[in-house]
Design brief:
Layout lengths: L6 H9 L10 E2 L2 E2 L2 E2 L1 E2 L8 E2 L2 H15 L19 H8 L6 E3 L3 H12 L8 E5 L4 H13 L4 H4 E4 L10 H10 L4 E7 L11 H10 L3 E5 L11 H4 L3 E4 L14 E4 L45 H17 L2 H21 L2 E2 L2 E2 L1 E3 L12 E5 L3 H10 L2 E2 L1 E3 L3 E4 L8 H17 L1
Parallel strand pairs: 4-17, 7-8, 7-9, 9-10, 10-11
Antiparallel strand pairs: 1-5, 2-3, 6-12, 11-12, 13-14, 15-16, 16-19, 18-19
Helix pairs in contact: 1-13, 2-10, 4-5, 7-8, 11-13
The structure holds pyridoxal-5'-phosphate.
Amino acid sequence: MQYQNTPEFAHQLDEQDPLKSFRNKFLLPKYNGRDVIYLCGNSLGLQPMSAKRYLTEQLTNWQELGVEGWFEGDDPWLGYHKKLTPVLSAILGANEREISVMNSLTVNLHLLMVSFYKPTTKRYKILMEGGAFPSDQYALESQVRFHGFDPKDAIIEIFPRSGEYTLRTEDILDAIKNNADELALVLFSGINYYTGQFFDIEVITKAAHNAGVIAGFDLAHAAGNVPLKLHDWGVDFACWCSYKYMNSGPGGISGIFVHEKHFNEEHNRFAGWWGYRKDKQFLMAPGFDAEPGAGGWQVSTPPIMLMALHKASLDIFEEAGGVSVLRAKSEVLTGYLEFIINNINLKNGKELFKIITPKEPGKRGSQLSVVCAGDAKGIFNYLTKNGVIGDWREPNVIRLSPVPLYNSSTDVFNAGRLLAAYVENI
Ligand SMILES: *Cc1c(COP(=O)(O)O)cnc(C)c1O
């Protein structure tokens, strides 16, 4: 697309946007009495207008039914999680039995590693991207230690080549091949939180399998952002959170994917009664007998209020036509933001902004990570003071994420206009 850095052009894009009415389904925070320009859906998605109603419905069920709410009412809590899986399975590219909604993200990563990180004295290493989200680093280090290994030896991190910001797929594949005999697990994010790089999940999974290694993914920044086909790609396991692109509230409920090829294996698990086979759960018998499918990894009584918030958001995804529809708009918005930043980038022949997110639309989602020259924190504070909400990552990166459900091209233009004013005045 030939972009233009003008309000008329932005307006025209918005007029043609089939999703333009969806902005009205979300509550935008205010700053000085005006809606902010919210470019932070990669960190915490906005509240759907319907969230309060979904929550109130369950509070009313609780009020009116008490414990009977598990079995009575329009949405008995016992089966409430099943109402989430059709939309989620489309978002993740999985069949419904491969998905279970439960817990929070890092907890799920631990539970999945209990089952899928099975080190032996010869094969005990984990390959991951350098600069992964800290919680994942801590989780992996503690898992490795739990099995009696030293993280310094057992965790192989791969970093971009010198002078580069993102990883080349060929380097990931080489690292898998070169360490094949010692690897027990390849664990990557779907999209790196810092750079916004969308990894080639299918290719990484194939390479891991060719080396006889399990491939798992943390999809915190990918779920609800980019199209995924976990089942077809043969991914062994994955987990995600629902509060970033899936707008399900701070600390919202997470989910897991386990490929059906693993359903008939014996697994190590940290089990709980909610993962017991459903037809016999309430016999309260001794000896754990897992529910077939991903449901067997559930541990505890599901938090219905969090699930209600998740459902409010997933119903909007469904109404919008799913991630492929969102993705088309996301590419336009992200491309437009990139164009505008590059358009205002030069000051006296010097580059002010360097976008470290890959240029190819297929290698990124809705986020651009911008390294700022000079007073980076000053630029970030200036944006915030003028009602543009992005987020800051040390030492000098601003992440901006135009989200197709509630952002417009005019948002992108206005954020760019502010940046341009800042550049004028330095
Ligand atoms: C956001 C994020 C997390 C956060 O995990 P919680 O358990 O929800 O706090 C973990 N890993 C990645 C890759 C993330 O992007």
